[in-house]
Amino acid sequence: METCQSLEELRERIGDCQRCPLARTRTNLVFGVGSPHARLMFIGEAPGRNEDLQGEPFVGAAGKLLDELLASIGLDRREVYIANVLKCRPPGNRDPLAEEMEQCTPFLEEQVRLIDPEVIATLGNFATRHMLKTQAGITRLRGRLFRVDGRKVVPIYHPAAALYDRTKQDVLFEDFRRLKAVLDAAADEQKPSQPSVEQPTLF
Length: 203
Known about the structure:
The protein is of the alpha/beta class. It has one domain (7-190): Uracil-DNA glycosylase-like domain (Uracil-DNA Glycosylase, subunit E). Helices cover 42% and strands 12% of the residues. The chain has 8 helices and 6 strands, in the order H-E-E-H-H-E-H-E-H-H-E-E-H-H. The chain has a 6-stranded mixed beta sheet, with helices on both faces. The radius of gyration is 16 Å and the shape is globular.
């Protein structure tokens, strides 16, 4: 797709999207929310029921947990940017289909280009597989640091996973502490008085 000059222009270009069948079942298109200059960007899978109703990502129980996780490392959602691979809710919260992702991911890629985050946290399997171009699952990939197009990518369990499996909640808070360390290291690399330090593949 042609590049845009701003997130606002991109949202206008998406418009009342009818590019795939999800347009027939959605309530609202869920574009994204947060700082357009965020150093940290979160990418989830797709809107759920609450997100579809309100038109904003991560506003349900998973969103509340995400807010708690952010607060645990001294951030709130106004300082980061949150988006999904799909902009419309799949019926019944089913997994995204290949043709839906094909239509929608160019918009996500343009969001990433415009925001230009230093660090991307992928939440769950679909976001992680899309960003890393892999079929490996989140359980295998979480806890590792990757570099994609000059950005640091940190795979993390989706907060919704901790709502169904409470044992994952402690793991999520641990992952966010690691995410904070990656952010701090990225900030140090930007300081001209200090040499760039290559991060290890594993935390």
